[in-house]
Design goal:
The chain is built from 10 helices and 13 strands. With 349 residues, the protein is α+β, with helices and mostly antiparallel strands. A 4-stranded antiparallel beta sheet has the order 7-10-11-12, with no helix packed on it. Strands 8-9-13 form a 3-stranded mixed beta sheet, with no helix packed on it. Strands 1-2 form a two-stranded antiparallel ribbon.
Amino acid sequence: MDVPQSDAPFVKAYPAETTEAFLDGHVSAFAFFGGVPLSVLYDNTTIAVAKICGDGRRERTRAFTELQSHYLFRDRFGRPGKGNDKGKVEGLVKYARSNFMTPIPQAASFDDLNAMLEERCRRRQGERAGRHSETIGERLVADLESFRDLPAVPLEACEKRAARVSSTALVRYRCNDYSVPTAYGFRDVVVKGFVDEVVILCAGEQIARHRRAYGTGTFVFEPLHYLALIETKPNALDQAAALKDWDLPEAFQHLRHLLEARMGNRGKREFIQVLRLMEAIPMEIVASAVTEAIRLGAIGFDAVKQIALARVERRPARLDLTAYPHLPRTDVRMTTAADYAVLVPGRVA
């Protein structure tokens, strides 16, 4: 995005040219400038324009209409195939490639890359463009005076699609499949596709959140979604595709060996119950509870649950009677063999 009067730039990179990237780019640019311009000039991208009518009028897409309604700016469109109609932003593309992307920047993630690009855009405001004596930042002040204020809440930058859960508890979005809890099989859902996340809702309630996949034919599983079903079929624990690449701490496998050695197949079921604790409690706390249960020799689901809940509630795992002064005290002494003499007929203690 380029503010043509001041030449102030905003550049952000995305994995793909998608609806959610288009929306997120606007939200990020408006936040960067601290306001919303009165009008924005576009080319005829299909993300914004569903159809060009014979009289030159454009039919906007639903996503673009939502964006425009939220930020209340006026749109303008260049002539099809006429890049010179928006020469400023075309020039910014060339400038950014030459100055921001050469040499090719190295970044661990898109977030790191975009933080780098945003910093370059801010530094650009301290420079001069063309024959102007003022810096870009100084000229930007006059532009911002005519901008609209940002709305109280930014637009939720996502693409929304209706979908249906399959028999294997998967929802397809843009050629990839994402898991949901098995209880939602065959239900109608709404998929919200963000730039880096996919959120799935059923009846207005969020039931799954995944990292976005940009490949094709990828299966994105959350192992916890399948544990309720596997608990009814414990022998499927080692064959379930959703659990195949689950990276669990070593303590879990140690606990499983101990449980199965002591209880056989029932131990496998108890191990699945331990895994299901992570449906409500963070993995780090459950893993710590498993380690502590093994140390204490308390091998079982109940022990792990008790220790995990104690850490969530920040209380000791053992009952401390000093915290309950109203309870009556009992005096328990060591039993001796002579105490059993009263049970012998004819003997009196």
